[in-house]
Design a protein that fits this description.
The complex is a heterodimer of chains A (469) and B (101). Chain A is built from 17 helices and 6 strands. Chain A is α/β, with parallel strands linked by helices and 469 residues long. In chain A, β2, α15 and β3 form a beta-alpha-beta unit. Chain A is elongated. Chain B is 70% helix and 0% strand. Classes of the chains: A alpha/beta (469), B mainly alpha (101).
């Protein structure tokens, strides 16, 4: 039986790998997810044989409750709230790992046989699992705008975090060596201490991180939960936990790095200096009195209809907030029906997660081959007649390229919209975006038309104007 | 001891495999990929089942029960939401099925 379960676990692991491989291309991605799901089913069924169908009733009830809640929440969550949903699923995974380690620790304490591997990996699993659990809860609350919005900082934050971490290590050593390091503290008390300190560490690590960096944090916590699962595999001596966990831990780490480089934000800066990233929001450079070209939706519409042949649309988070994906899709169809070429330039930080804007637009019916990445759309702006920017600012702000300015977005790759003939902003006000940096394009009255409007209403009006002119 | 060494070897190889798996993924797929790997670490449910099956008193039963609940939530929610996300990436023209000879 051991050989059979081992082989079945290997098969499950192979399916996980094939699944992830297929997720790298849009055409095969969905089948990749299904294949990984089949691997998961094999792993779970195999486990039933491993545990010889013990406690089947309790396992059945608990899984059913979890499965029903998972299915309902996954089916119901609006796509705009997707990032926090992923954070929530990730958190419960980390929580499960910590609980498993806790349960195994209890067995070791109450007359289990001596097991040095388990006694080392138990504190490790509790640490990573709990940090991931609490960190994900904080990330969820931030994204759902329940609490801790923006960057929450306090003095000596890094010192406190470091002290907590050292404290956890000492407690772990004390638990491993059966209380011989801190004679006044029993192993049980040490583990409870690890649990509490890890929970606090998870909270403190995530609260200083600002909204724009949340996707990277969620991806990092995702990798952490993978590591916690792998560590729990050593606790329980189980191969699929080790393999499945470490694959997610490793691929999640690389994915996090790719995301952070796509966003132009070094990982170290995000983790250790959430403060510097978002703290300087109060600069407005006295641009309030400068002149802008305040245009009506009709003016914008007639320009698009009469003078534009190639149009690039740049959507930003404002579009998602206003739920204006559908009017945007309508505008695309109207322009195309007049024989114009319409492309979408998607900046990596558009929306709240890389790829999030793509999901929102494809949901509204925009074909995904019209969605261009930053590197692919930038060469197109040279011969573009009009760029429509909806609810975005930072991602098209040329100030990011200005070597003389030190702003929170300096060095971030941007969409070079200023190379296009005309730029049309659909925006509610002149307020600078998330990063709080004024955009010189607003004041280029020859090139720029500012349509001050809610994204949804503005797009509908422009669409009507294009149709009628 | 031998078993531990085998596990460490597997850990190392799987880690490198995980690093290599993700190379130049288009930004378009970052979120689905994160969500799918998020579902895969739901394999922690396996650990929850083992813990609950080995439980012999109220404390370990409660802990194991919650672990299984969390794990199942992670697995089902994770795969389901990824599937929903990817369902939105439709090819521009439905592919014509190849005719069988």
């Amino acid at each position: 039986m051991q050989v059979a379960t081992f082989l079945a676990y290997l098969l499950a692991a192979a399916l996980f790998i094939v699944g992830i491989r297929r997720l790298r291309k849009p055409d095969t991605a969905r089948s990749g997810n299904t294949i990984a799901g089949v691997g998961m089913a094999i792993a779970l069924i195999t486990t039933l044989f491993v545990i010889e169908f013990e406690s089947l009733l309790l396992i059945g009830i608990a899984s059913l409750l979890g499965a029903v809640l998972g299915a309902i929440s996954a089916q119901r969550v609006p796509m705009t709230a997707m990032p926090q949903m992923v954070a929530a699923y990730n958190g419960v995974g980390g929580g499960a790992a910590a609980l498993i380690a806790l349960s195994e620790f209890y067995h070791l304490q109450t007359g289990g046989e001596e097991n040095i591997v388990a006694s080392i990996t138990v504190p490790l699993t509790i640490l990573i699992g709990t940090v991931s659990f609490m960190g994900s809860i904080i990330a969820f609350m931030k994204l759902q705008e329940l609490a801790f919005s923006g960057s929450v900082v306090f003095p000596l934050q890094q010192v406190v975090n470091a002290l907590l971490f050292v404290g956890i290590l000492v407690l772990a050593a004390n638990a491993i060596f059966d209380g011989s390091i801190l004679p006044f503290l029993s192993p049980v008390a040490s583990v409870i201490g690890i649990l509490a300190a890890s929970a606090l560490l998870g909270i403190l690590l995530v609260i200083p991180i600002g909204g724009a960096d949340m996707p990277i944090v969620i991806s990092l916590l995702n990798a952490a939960t993978g590591l916690a699962a792998a560590a729990s595999g050593f606790v329980l001596n189980n191969y699929i936990l080790i393999i499945g966990g470490i694959i997610v831990g490793a691929s999640g780490t690389i994915l996090t790095r790719q995301m952070s480089s796509a966003l132009g934000r070094p990982l170290r800066k995000i983790i250790f200096a959430g403060i510097a990233a978002t703290g300087t929001g109060s600069k407005s450079g006295g641009g309030e009195d400068r002149e802008v070209n305040d245009a009506s939706p009709e003016e914008a519409g007639s320009y698009l209809s009469d003078d534009a042949q190639k149009v690039v649309i740049v959507p930003g988070y404002g579009l998602a907030v206003a739920q204006a994906q559908s009017p945007l899709h309508d505008l695309m169809e109207t322009l195309e029906s007049q024989g114009k070429e319409v492309l979408f330039g998607i900046h990596p930080v558009a929306g709240r997660m890389p790829g999030h804007m793509n999901v929102l637009l494809t949901e509204a019916g925009v074909p995904y081959d019209k969605l261009y990445d930053l590197e692919d759309i930038n060469p197109e702006f040279g011969d573009t007649d009009a760029v429509i920017i909806v609810g975005a600012n930072d991602v098209v702000n040329p100030a990011a390229n200005d070597p003389d300015q030190d702003t929170p977005i300096s060095g971030m790759p941007i969409l070079d919209v200023e190379k296009a003939e005309k730029v049309i902003f659909v925006k509610r006000s002149l307020s600078p975006g998330f990063a709080g940096v004024d955009n010189p394009l607003f004041y280029d009255t020859d090139k720029t038309m500012m349509v001050f409007s809610d994204a949804k209403q503005g797009l509908q009006q422009i669409n009507e104007a294009v149709k009628n002119s | 001891m031998e078993q531990l060494l085998a596990q460490l070897a597997i850990l190392l190889i799987a880690a490198f495999l995980g690093f290599e798996l993700i190379s130049r993924v288009p930004n378009l797929l970052h979120t689905p990929l994160m969500s799918a790997t998020n579902a895969i670490h739901g394999v922690i449910l396996v650990g929850g089942m083992i813990a609950l099956a080995a439980s012999d008193d109220v404390f370990t039963q409660i802990v194991g029960f919650v672990a299984v609940f969390f794990g199942a939530l992670n697995v089902v929610g994770g795969f389901w939401v990824t599937n929903r996300m990817l369902g939105m990436f439709r090819p521009p023209v439905p592919k014509v099925k190849k005719r069988k000879r």
